[in-house]
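Q: Hi! First time doing this. I have a protein sequence and I read that you can turn it into a structure. Is that right? Here it is:
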Amino acid sequence: MKKYKIKTSLLTGDNATVAKGVSERLGMDSFFAEVLPHQKLAKPLTVR
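A: Yes, that's right. Below is the predicted 3D structure, encoded as structure tokens:
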């Protein structure tokens, strides 16, 4: 994804500590933690 300059984000219901660790390990650009299921539908639209 980085080759094509596409930013990646982790969207998870886990706490911020876990989300940060996983996103760093996967090389993601950002993360959103403690996101509830109903929020997961709308979040990608707000990040654009």
